Input
Amino acid sequence: MKMAHPFTTILLDWFKENRRPLPWRETRDPYAIWLSEVILQQTRIQQGTAYWERFMRRWPSVESLAAATEDEVLREWQGLGYYSRARNLHAAARQIVELGHFPDTMAEIRRLKGVGDYTAAAIASIAFDLPEAVVDGNVFRVLARHFGIDTPINSTEGKKTFKALAQELLPPSEASAFNQAMMDFGAVQCVPQSPCCANCPLMESCAAFREGRVEALPVKLKKLQVKTRHLTYVYIRCNGYTAIHRRGAGDIWQGLWEPPCPLNDNLLKNAKLLRSNVKHVLTHRILLADFYLLECDEKPTLPDDFIWIPEANIDNYGVPRLVELLLEAVARHDDSAS
Output
């Protein structure tokens, strides 16, 4: 039997003492584990835990999630961002139900909608004890620093290098513990800024610490340029009704609902400005939005894809966070006017 690498032994010992108590770690239910991995792809643990608990209460099984409508799932997801995750989650739930069981091989898990290499490896190892190493931002950072690797982590060569190293270090009989240990070590000990090197159990063997390169690793190629986009939203109030439409494919927030975002000033003539230059930051985009309120007695002419709903029902529709801010501005206006 192959002896465990000293890095692996020390890491697993650290994990036994420092394991984070997360609710999805108290189950081997692959549905619960998959749900947690999807939610946490672009979300902090603290925020993600609350969403995971809500989803599990409302849809405790993959069958119940598959039976939901996409609108219901998007509404429950509201506030987490990256809404393609929610649409993929719903589509994958229906894939699983059609399959008749939760997929239990790496190839089958990888075929689920929205599941990439990292998520597939996490589910495979944690739910089914398959010897598949996970590689995410935490793993890149820990391995780059400890082994002194300066290959860019977002390059093709870098991804192959780190995946191979993680797989080599993984003990086949303890894949679940090793992968979770790597995630926790990067999130708690070997953090991006000012890591806790003084009390790190891997300090003596860490190349970055020894060479004074902790802050320089990992190396990442330059990001895409962040662009600024301006939006204008008009919340229309007409005899207790408001108008919204569903955003289409090919742009941000596909499938979510929003009020008119006019291309001309016709709707703005009699509208009241509530807030201007409201800033909302996405991954590669900064949005600056102006919020207006138009109160009228006759419904203005809008494109055919708009629907009129009672204002009281707006919470039944999934909307982007920026539209949530608009609704909050409208509520403040109403409070001040009453």
Summary: Strands lie at 227-238, 241-246, 257-258, 272-281, 285-296, 307-310.
